[in-house]
Amino acid sequence: MSDIHLGFQKHESLQKIEQQVFEKALDECISRQVDFILIPGDLFHVNIPEMRVQKFAFAKFRQVYDAGIPVYVVYGSHDFSPVSNSVIDLLAEVGYIIKVTRATSNEDDTITLDFIIDEKTGAKIAGLSGLKVGKDREWYEKLDRSGFEAESGFKIFLFHGGIADMKTDSGMDGDHMPLSLLPKGFSYYAGGHMHKFNHQKFSEYPHVVYPGTLFAGYHADLEENAKGQQRGFVIVEFEDMVKSVEFIPIGNVQYEVIEVDANNRKADSVNLELEQRSKEIDPADKVVIIKVQGELTSGKTADVDVSAVRERLSSLGSLIVNISKNRLTSKEYAITEAKGNDKDEIETNVFKENIGQLRFDHKELLGEKGVELAKRLLRELGQPQLVNEKKNEYIPRVRGSALSILGLEDDS
Ligand SMILES: [Mn+2]
């Protein structure tokens, strides 16, 4: 299994699902008495997730450990730490998981990888972690392959990264390396990084398998789930060769998707459609995904008001309402980019460009004055929460200062 991204979900109800699918997957491994588990990266969403996530992961891996099932892991691009400063290293330290990468740099600038031999099955396991800065390629290019590729026995290679020869429509861009960079002659290639299940066979690479994410590691994954993408892990049966690779789906949650095409329409008509469409669904215990895209004929994109719809759906028990207006624009008003030499200059220029497009009666919001006001407001709204300051103290403090900058009374 791969790309579990524990700690990705910020919303309580989705955190629960993130944990449930992980528990289900590992329980399934325990009850099927698998020989071992491979996790080729992005087990966690960040190298040091919050304590709640660590505690949960330790408890679960303890169960897997007690069941006598070794877990072989490489870092992914998310939980990678160049100085072994990841929760993965803690889990490895206590013996719940085994880090696979055993690399030695040689004097001639090549890298030798050593195998770990799985005690029970004799499988020879090697692998390379995913790296944050796209250095993977360099490592693969330096790999001392001869003996490594010729090694006999049932061999498994763990890797984390995209393979150009296996590109799918998953929408993940970035650097995909050619398959030929992976060492040849392994019986099974356990891949991470691509979030959709993908199993392909090539002449010198008999089984290259991405199990895909167990739930979601990007917001786009939730949308894929909503459109019917199955999530799960794979069970591989082998003796001296792979006999079968079976995808085991793990259900997560129910979804509703509302997509609205705003092209050549006014905000009012889009708002009306949103309201009607949201009344046609039963949002209880579901993840609701709302996407509004296209180019409005007039008005601002902010005139498409989703707050009422969001409130209604929440009050009817939806787990979370995910609204995307990223691809909504307006003919009349569009946020313009601006250049500058430093942050301050860029901010000033962005405000100048955009305020220049506005027509208001409030003269103080326009021109140089408007730019000054906007900058002061931005600075105030960017204030972080103070140490020991509670959220219910922080929010009124920032709101109060912002309103006073605007010369308004705080009547909340
Ligand atoms: Mn990932």
Describe the structure.
It is a single chain. The chain is of the alpha/beta class. The protein has eleven helices and 19 strands. It folds into three domains: 238 residues, Metallo-dependent phosphatases (Purple Acid Phosphatase, chain A, domain 2, 4-Layer Sandwich); 81 residues, no CATH class; 77 residues, no CATH class. It is 31% helix and 22% strand. The strands form six sheets. Strands 6-7-8-11-13-12 form a six-stranded mixed sheet, with no helix packed on it. Strands 16, 17, 18 and 19 form a four-stranded parallel sheet that branches. Helix 9 packs across helix 10 and helix 10 packs antiparallel against helix 11. 30% of the residues are buried. It binds manganese (II) ion. Manganese (II) ion binds next to loops.
What are the salient characteristics of this protein?
single chain; 412 residues; alpha/beta; Purple Acid Phosphatase, chain A, domain 2; four-stranded parallel sheet; 11 helices; elongated; binds manganese (II) ion
Principal-axis shape: elongated
The low-confidence parts are none
Strand count: 19
- The CATH architecture of the largest domain can be named as 4-Layer Sandwich
Question: What percent of residues are in strands?
Answer: 15-25%
Bound molecules: manganese (II) ion
Alpha carbon gyration radius: 26 Å
Number of helices: 11
Distance between the termini: 49 Å
**The CATH fourth-level homologous superfamily of the largest domain:** Metallo-dependent phosphatases
SSE run: HEHEHEEEEEHHEEEEEEHEEEHEHEEHHH
Would you give the CATH topology of the largest domain?
A: Purple Acid Phosphatase, chain A, domain 2
- Class per helix and strand makeup: alpha/beta
Query: What is the arithmetic mean of pLDDT?
Result: 91
Largest sheet, order of strands side by side? 6-7-8-11-13-12
Number of domains: 3
